Amino acid sequence: MKNLSTRYPAVPLITCDPYFSVWSMSDELNDDFPRHWTNMQNPLTGIVTIDGKEKIFMGKKRHNPFYHKFFGTPEKINQTRLNVTPLRTVYVFSDEKIELEIIFTTPLLPDDLKLLSRPVSYMSYKIKSLDGNKHDVSVYVDVSAMLCTDTPDEKVFFGKSDNYVYISSGRENMLKESGDDKRINWGKVCLAAPNGKLGFTDDNCKCSETDDYREMRVMDSFPAIFARDDYKEIDSASGFFCFGYDDILSLEYFGRRVRGYWRKDREDFDDVLELAIKDYDEIMKKVDEFDSKMISDAEKISPEYANVITIAYRQAVAAHKLAWDGETGLFVSKECYSNGCAATVDVTYPSIPLFLIYNPDLVEYMLNPIFKFAYSEKWPYEFAPHDAGQYPLVNGQVYGDQGITGGHLRLESQMPVEECGNMLLCVAALCKKKGNTEYAEKHFDILSQWAEYLVKYGYNPENQLCTDDFAGHLAHNCNLSVKAIMGMAAWGMLLKMMGKDDKYTEIAKKYAAQWKVDAKENDHYRLAFDKEDSWSIKYNLVWDKLFGLGFFDDDIFETEVNYYKTKVNEYGLPLDCRSLYTKSDWQMWSTVLTNDKEYTDMIVSAMLKMLEETSDRVPFTDWYYTHDAKQVGFQNRTVQGGLFINMLSF
Predict the structure, then answer these.
(1) Over the stretch 355-389, which tens digit does the pLDDT of each residue have?
(2) Lower CB count within 10 Å: N or C terminus of the chain?
(3) How many CB atoms sit inside 10 A of residue 586's CB?
(4) For the CA atoms of 89, 581, 474, 363, what is the dihedral angle to 10 degrees?
């Protein structure tokens, strides 16, 4: 395993899905409580005891987030190193007696969907004597009840199974409400120690290894479950603990409640957790192989690029929920710190490069909810929808002023050209990567309808939103026009693959030639056809390169990239002339427009510099200012899958 070391604003510890997602948002693991990606505390405590002396390696000794200063700060063991790989986070601690290595692993292996969806994450450890002597050492970890509640005023109860302890918030809140800044408050969080002791504790440091089913409010004593491995007179040792979450039911999918993909063949949580322990060595070997291959491939672009995609991988995967509806897979994204929308088309669109590379089936599973909703009577428009719900309730689009309450989906809140282009391009990329058109043929009529919409309305879009909706409505958007042209071109490509008549290729070529004239502004191309002295990143051009279509002249790409070079700030390239903020995904897409390594290195270095120097301690934000590295909004979003576009080929 090759480790990459840099300073990240937030470091992944447990990354299974949008609810079971715990991060360290400090430079040292024992500087603060671990937190959910929303920044709410999800306390985990780690203590190593060396010859009877306790030292904290993770979190705080007390879980109480309101009064922890009152209790004081216990002695910490010194953190000496932090390395992150795509699937692992490795901390090293030491004192005068021992070295302690702590490894967090979530095996999000894309070629094994049951394993990828399994809600189990590992904390491994290695102990080594540094002074040549043998020592008595204990490794202790506990998990706060806050991991299974939305807020600490909620009630939980405890239980013990054959091979794990758990805290549960029960079943009564299952899939009752949706939202963005929310945490799970049903099911049970579990902790397993294959060779250790298990029990319950609280902020009064009362520990019990017996069954305890008492119900209590979390904030009354901030209870936790714990695991401990004890060693006598050792100079080295190793072991692991398992964190698990049984959510029972995962999503509501158009009125039906569905389970995680790992339950596809009716597996039981207890059996799956036992399997996670039994297969530990085999899983870690696969993790090592996957990490090494991804890093090696990324380093062909540059070592700095490898560092950027390393911190993006777990986030991009785990901000989805992989479920099974009884017939097919569902890979449902959540718009984290955006609006909580589920299966959003213009979140899927930027994220697909990662999944096209490692398992195109996941792209199909992303698109399934949108097609299901588009076929329903609830969708009144001839263009493609924006989303399929608000996480975890996937019951139909909520984007738009009236949508969340089930009212009218207002036309002015839609993204007609954007979403039609996105759906056509996503399906085309999926089919081209798979080498067959089965998915496009399955949805032939509605894709044809969306392609016709682009022919009618796509070249010079009216005043409407695009995926960069935070910038507001814009008429005559040149980059949105490119998306429409590429959507038509992609449909023409698919029709040829199917052996069907194609009129769209010629239409797209005609529009592309006209675009070159209408969008020209001296040494670059405009933000909008009617806006002089304007510019924007034309990230939608990327498909002309990736699909090898050649609809746009090469000098357009060279002209744009040469102009972008003059606009790059300390932390990146602004999205357009209206603001100094940028989007990380669109910046990276612009590096694929030409083979200009100098420009690619410029963008990658600026992005890595943002990660290393931003003062915002959040999972990799995709929306930030390029002059001061400040987050504007968004965090922990799946769109960072778009950063893998440099590794994508067809």
Answers:
(1) 999 999 999 999 999 999 999 999 999 999 999 99
(2) C
(3) 24
(4) -10
Residue 292 has pLDDT above 60, yes or no: yes
Alpha-carbon torsion (550, 555, 561, 563), positive or negative: negative
What tokens appear for 290 in the block? Answer: 């996957």
What pLDDT digit, counting tens, does each position of 487-543 carry? 999 999 999 999 999 999 999 999 999 999 999 999 999 999 999 999 999 999 999
Residues 3/90, Cβ–Cβ less than 8 Å:
yes
And the tokens for 645? Answer: 């576009």
Residue keyed to tokens 């904290």: 56
One-letter identity of residue 66: F
CB 343 within 8 A of CB 415: no
Amino acid letter for position 261: Y
Q: What is the three-class DSSP state of 646?
A: helix
Rounded to whole angstroms, the Cα distance separating 635 from 27 reads: 18
Strand partners, 135: 234
- Calpha distance 125→239 (Å, rounded): 6
* pLDDT value for 208: 64
Evaluate whether 405 touches 395 at the Cβ level (below 8 Å). no
Tens of pLDDT, residue by residue over 162-176, are 889 999 999 999 999
Q: Is the pLDDT of residue 468 over 70?
A: yes
| Mean per-residue pLDDT, 311-334 | 97
Q: Residue 628 to residues 260, 620, 624, 643: CA-CA distances in angstroms?
A: 41, 16, 9, 21
Tokens of 192: 């397993």
Strands 393-394 and 251-253: parallel
Pairing of strands 224-234, 165-170: unpaired
Question: Coil, helix or strand for 391?
Answer: coil
Dist. CA 201–CA 544, nearest whole Å: 59
CA distance linking residue 226 with residue 45, whole number of Å: 9
Confidence at 404, pLDDT banded by 50, 70, 90: very low
Residues in contact with 153: Cβ distance below 8 Å, sequence separation at least 6, in sequence order: 217, 218, 219
Closest C-alpha to 560, from 531, 581, 590:
590
Identity (one letter) of the amino acid at 129?
Answer: S
CA nearest 191: which of 116, 114, 154, 246? 246
| DSSP code string of 82-145 | EEE-SSEEEEEEE-SSEEEEEEEE----TT-HHHHH--EEEEEEEEEESSS--EEEEEEEEEEG
- Rounded to whole angstroms, the Cα distance separating 560 from 516 reads 12
Instruction: Produce one character per residue of 214-226: b if its CB has 16 or more CB atoms within 10 Å, e if not.
Output: eeeebbebbbbbb
